């Protein structure tokens, strides 16, 4: 597939837009549907497979307006129902079509605080775009209005204008501790701080941002974008304390007791890697995807001067078929591996990774070995990985997840030469905090149990994001943060009125 340059794509769109704009008010649905879906400008695959620069480059103005003109402004607005935080999608898309980007941004920000991030990483193809009328008419989700790309365009436009700092109400004297600094926590911190309450974010790592900083690689989500959101919080007066592990540095009970916080939000995510528990997983050269990506994204382990360098690998197998597996495989390529193979026990149709990420990985040269799974990892005399023994699979009846169950084919063993294995088969919740807070109710997977307001079994303690949902998505974490923040604001406001009533009685 040839890759047109961003300038070519923008010039083509500008020519088409010039032709359509004079009669835009009279455009019929048929004419709107005849506008071709705009292709995302991207770095050329041959070059990008070896650098960490962002792969998707973003629409230019003409591409964005032309794409927005495809929207039919449907009366039933099915796309809104597909959006987990219910952004008024037709309203923002119509504003883009008119070139009113500030208005588009205001519409999005009513419901989503992190549009530059969501526009890049949300699985729109299984949310708003899946529900879009155009996807149904063309029987192809790729033909939906590119809502995510338009969201990203608007957010990037706003960033270029210089983002202001949201206003904060007068100080109330009430204080919230937010544990973790992923998307759920950032949303809580912003929403609660805006009401004038003091907010302190406590983060275990040396950098805030959660998975958006340590997990999702730079080539999909530039760290500067996440950092800007964190800088905005700091400018609003949110205090961020890093290298602070709740459960070790302080316990949950200490925060509410001696430390004097009036409420706590827990957004500690799902950062505990799962392993296959097969022989050889302890060998040198076997990584969990978490460790691998964290060492690269956060500790810059690929730099010669890095304190904890990463073992160089030439032939890497990545086990799994989700976004984390794709990110690991594409990172391994960028670190110089000669061959990177995704090993997945089902077929591509069952892969949980975003279609776009699978396509990008393939374009960059990642090899897919499907219906296969390792049964043991083999080492050399130095305890380093040298090969992986795998089995072939076929698909049986659907299992509990609704996907067809992979069944091993007896006697189908074969060996694959590899010197690096990255295990990307999922994450669970880290028990560090929960095990030191016995009153905090959890379910059998270790996730914190909350009510519809994000309230946990402990008084004044709320939780949201992956620590509640299990490994999920940025937008769902944000949505939970929003809900919990509203309940926390109600609680702290009620505290405030109680305090002022008792002061006036004492007076
Ligand atoms: C590699 C990868 C790729 C992904 N790709 C996508 C994608 O494309 N699209 C998408 O929507 N989602 C994606 N996800 C999932 C998404 O990133 C998560 O669902 C989301 O980040 C969860 O947000 P959260 O706020 O619950 O916490 P997290 O982002 O997990 O952050 C939790 C934070 O809490 C900190 N913490 C943990 N325990 C403690 C403690 N005891 N004390 C203090 N701090 C603590 C952690 O260090 C971390 O910084 C991906 C996940 C991974 C791992
Ligand atoms: S469903 Fe699609 S076409 Fe209809 S209003 Fe939403 S984005 Fe526009």
What does this entry look like structurally?
By secondary structure, this protein is an alpha/beta fold. The protein has three domains: 6-161, Alpha-helical ferredoxin (Fumarate Reductase Iron-sulfur Protein, Chain B, domain 2, Orthogonal Bundle); 175-271 and 429-506, 3-Layer(bba) Sandwich (FAD/NAD(P)-binding domain), CATH 3.50.50.60; 278-427, FAD/NAD(P)-binding domain. 39% of the residues lie in helices and 15% in strands. The protein is built from 21 helices and 16 strands. It has helices spanning 6-20, 29-34, 45-48, 61-69, 78-82, 89-98, 101-111, 115-121, 128-131, 133-137, 147-161, 183-194, 211-214, 223-235, 252-256, 289-297, 323-334, 355-364, 431-434, 466-469, 474-506; strands at residues 175-179, 198-202, 239-241, 263-266, 272-273, 286-288, 315-319, 339-344, 367-370, 372-379, 385-398, 404-408, 414-417, 420-423, 427-428, 461-463. The strands form four sheets. A five-stranded parallel sheet has the order 3-2-1-4-16. Helix 4 crosses helix 6, helix 4 (61-69) runs antiparallel to helix 11 and helix 7 packs across helix 11 (147-161). The chain starts with 5 loop residues before the first helix and ends with a helix. The model has no long low-confidence stretch (mean pLDDT 93). The structure holds flavin-adenine dinucleotide and iron/sulfur cluster. The site of flavin-adenine dinucleotide has 41 residues, from helix 12, helix 13, helix 17, helix 19 and helix 20.
